[in-house]
Write a structure and sequence with these properties.
The protein is mainly beta and 87 residues long. Helices cover 0% and strands 45% of the residues. The strands form two sheets. A three-stranded antiparallel sheet has the order 3-4-5, with no helix packed on it. Strand 3 (52-60) and strand 4 form a beta hairpin.
């Protein structure tokens, strides 16, 4: 399982000195009303593992946020907004 999905941070691009969990099958919203099956796939998949995967991030400096998109179980697309001030 590819869990948790972690964002590693670096000020100089060489030394990654902090990390933040972006998504995990053990925390909300997975396993809640928004995603009642958690990270359990709705359909049988032949390749790959359940959980968050295929991440991509984009920074909006004017809005002070980073947006992380990822697939959940190759079935759903999620977008997570992270405030740059909290990173």
């Amino acid at each position: 399982m590819r869990d948790p999905l972690v964002l590693s941070l670096s000020r100089d691009g060489r030394t990654f000195d902090s990390a933040r969990v972006v998504a995990s099958c053990t925390t909300r919203p997975f396993g809640s009303a928004e995603q009642p099956n958690g990270c359990t796939p709705r359909h049988v998949i032949k390749a790959g593992a359940p959980g968050p995967q295929y991440p991509h991030a984009a920074v909006d400096p004017a809005g002070g946020a980073m947006y992380v998109t990822f697939s959940l179980n190759k079935e759903d697309i999620w977008v997570k907004r992270l405030a740059l001030s909290e990173l």
